[in-house]
Amino acid sequence: MSTDLSFQRCIHPDCGKTYAVSEVLTACTACDNLLDIEYDWSRLPVPGSLREFEAKWANRRNPLDYSGVWRFRNLLPWAPESSIVTIGEGQTILQQSNAVGKYVGSNAGQLFLQYEGLNPSGSFKDNGMTAAATHARMVGAKMAACASTGNTSASLAIYASTAQLFRVVVFVGSGKIAYGKLSQALDYDAKTLQILGDFDDALERVREVSGERGIYLCNSVNPFRLEGQKTIMYRVLEALAWEPPDWIVVPGGNLGNSSAFGKAFAELKALGLITKIPRLAVINAAGANTLYRLYHQQGLRWNDGRTDDAKIDGFFTTMDAEKRRASTLASAIEINRPVNLKKCLRALETCNGVVREVSDQDILDAKAQVGAGGFGCEPASAASVAGAKLLRAEGVIAPSDRVVCILTGHQLKDPDATVAYHSGNRELFDEKLRKQGVTSAPYANSPTVVENNLQKIIEALGV
Ligand code: F0G
Any idea of the CA torsion for 157, 290, 258, 143, to the nearest 10 degrees? Predict the structure, then answer.
């Protein structure tokens, strides 16, 4: 057992091996399970109330208090302040949206959107990457790497370009990475390898290469990243005057966010800082639904940490035998081997959670409604809204429940999908959307083509 104030610990209860925070690991060396960052709270300055964090707002010329991640550093106290790498991440907002609420079926005033696309690189990843970059700095890493469906790579690349502390290589699948995201990695000068395979392949390769070459790995198997992502929940609570909502709804890909959210709430409850834990809904795209299948068809559960590994192994063996690959227009969550599966199962247990899958049609329709009723988001993010609508229709979410949907990425990340949906251009629609099972665009806002003539323009305006 570690005597440090913070340490890494294997999540398996029969192992529980601990490691110093100075060690660079992505799995337990004894049993290969995931690692948590843990704290000896009895020897740390725990805030008496969450309201204490509001005082940081008065001190915003200090970059650590300005950061929406590090102003909560007392709740993730593993990094010396002098090592922290911050670029002002986490200036994100919680917006109430009655327009989207109506679409979901919620009572007025009860539906909220958490816009994580407002981060510096345009997605929630910056919450975790500031922590990974900080740890990379602490351990003196010279090179960092990740595999990505696009947002992780954009985030790692922006931290590397601004901090100038280490070089970066990003592995992306050669298939469906959205151009907004690819353009970021290129523009931030990251060495970019397009692997001839999909995300699941790219992650397997980057793990091998990092292990072999001692490159610092920044995917969400890195437990420090998830510590940063806990702060999304702190900001949601803060925006709701520290009153936990009834539901948090989040898209599920590699399942890092859901895992981090569960850990955040479990810790806050254990520290006596909240009394109620919101319910968690994790939403898979139907074309990338490993969690959904394992949870519902195979009854896989956390089971006090003794997860049925044979069930998981058997699932992946069959998946490979059937050559099933993930396939969804929500390219950010086009993932069939979610690395944080077990931590997500734990979060579902902590938060009395549910798992659902939604079709690409549902995702794009929800995305159009988010755009029409607010700032917009990329396709994967809209899985949260589509999932909330489904759970409302099932009666699992009540109309009076207070629901927070996490919008994980910015609208401009993937303009192709948006234009194909709205444009009314059949060819474009068929090419991009129909082959993924999207057959209609009920919320399309198609542009009107009009002659370059004043009279015709006035006629077209119809006013
Ligand atoms: N939403 C967006 C916009 C994402 O980019 C991702 C993950 C997710 C949701 C899923 O989050 O993995 O925590 O369940 N994108 C990763 C990437 C895989 O490489 O950018 P998760």
Answer: -20
Ligand 1 center to 300 CA (angstroms): 22
CB 153 within 8 A of CB 192: yes
**CA of 290: how far to CAs of 337, 353, 384, 447, in Å?**
7, 16, 17, 38
Q: Are residues 271 and 331 in the same domain?
A: yes
Whether the model clears a pTM of 0.85, i.e. scores above it, the answer is: yes
**Distance of alpha carbon 356 from alpha carbon 18, whole angstroms:** 34
Tell how far the Cα of 148 is from the centroid of ligand 1, in angstroms: 8
* Residue at token pair 């609208």: 411
Q: Give the structural domain span for 45.
A: 6-49+124-223
Model pLDDT for residues 231-253, shown as the tens digit of each residue? 999 999 999 999 999 999 999 99
Binding-site residues, ligand 1, Cβ < 6 A: 123, 125, 148-152, 220, 251-257, 332-333, 378, 380-381, 408-409
The whole-angstrom separation of Cα 29 and Cα 16 is 11
Q: How many domains does the chain have?
A: 2
pLDDT surpasses 80 at 417: yes
Nearest CA to ligand 1 atom 12: 254
